[in-house]
Amino acid sequence: MSAFTRLPDLALRTYGGSVVAANDESFAEREALIRPGPPEFRPHTFGAKGQVYDGWETRRRREPGHDWAIVRLGLPGVIRGVVVDTAWFKGNYPPYASVEACEAEGHPAPDELDGWVEIVPRSPLSGDAAHEFAVTGERRFTHVRLNIFPDGGVARLRVHGEVVPDPAFLDGLTVDLAALENGGLVVACSNEFYSSPNNVIAPGPARNQSEGWETARRRDGGNDWLVVALAGPGTVAVAELDTSNLLFNAPGWAAVSGVDARKASPDDRDAWFPLLPRTRLQPDTRHRFRLDSDRTVTHARLDVYPDGGMARLRLLGRLTT
């Protein structure tokens, strides 16, 4: 598995992504391309259009050309890699695919998009396989277009990268400085046995335990933690620690601390200062705390005691630069 697959999937439906257009979806709907989770398959499940597939599938093309689908990224940013997954498509996969990307302001209609650039050249595909393509370049993109040649089925399209929000939009607002959609990223974590720590800063509420961060049971007397690089230097006014859906595996206590990495290394534990002292938590509860610190932070550390899960971490404040 490529290193870029550990980065957030910018296209994911639960992050606000949308398949806004496709030239054909005769056999299976385009929206499946960005569903969370691995593709599913049940053999001998036939509908009016044939075998049911958890993916996007076009008709057999009898004329020149190729099929395509356009995805609006839920989290615009710099793309580091793309995964084209043909899982379960064994006799009906496209033999080739390419990916293009563009950046657009506002909320354009699909036919208003232009300035497309190729980020994955036309490349061969095989059936029932996840194909990983690294992407180079530092441009910010808001949309991608998957081209398949000439037709066929693709189960999932993953677009991994680094979130880059519009800085002009955030300027002067009270925002969630830790949010993935605003450019926050978990950069260190003690344990991610059950689920990714970046889940804790994902958009929207967690619908179940799998959409939060959960650690293994700790037996060594220590505690678990994660570190978030914030959207930028800022002051935090409100900390929200949400243990929703965690009925019997929420932490007993938690604390939040901060550091300004422009003045001291986050690796220096003595440089961290408290934002929220160690505080008792309840299961399945959205906890909100007003903070009295006016110190600028670039990174925040969440400590949970001794272990357990957290559905969401929100750090509301203002950017200072």
From TrEMBL:
<feature type="domain" description="Allantoicase">
    <location>
        <begin position="183"/>
        <end position="319"/>
    </location>
</feature>
<protein>
    <recommendedName>
        <fullName>Probable allantoicase</fullName>
        <ecNumber>3.5.3.4</ecNumber>
    </recommendedName>
</protein>
<comment type="pathway">
    <text>Nitrogen metabolism; (S)-allantoin degradation; (S)-ureidoglycolate from allantoate (aminidohydrolase route): step 1/1.</text>
</comment>
<keyword id="KW-0659">Purine metabolism</keyword>
<dbReference type="InterPro" id="IPR015908">
    <property type="entry name" value="Allantoicase_dom"/>
</dbReference>
<dbReference type="Pfam" id="PF03561">
    <property type="entry name" value="Allantoicase"/>
</dbReference>
<dbReference type="InterPro" id="IPR008979">
    <property type="entry name" value="Galactose-bd-like_sf"/>
</dbReference>
<keyword id="KW-0378">Hydrolase</keyword>
<feature type="domain" description="Allantoicase">
    <location>
        <begin position="16"/>
        <end position="163"/>
    </location>
</feature>
<dbReference type="InterPro" id="IPR005164">
    <property type="entry name" value="Allantoicase"/>
</dbReference>
<comment type="similarity">
    <text>Belongs to the allantoicase family.</text>
</comment>
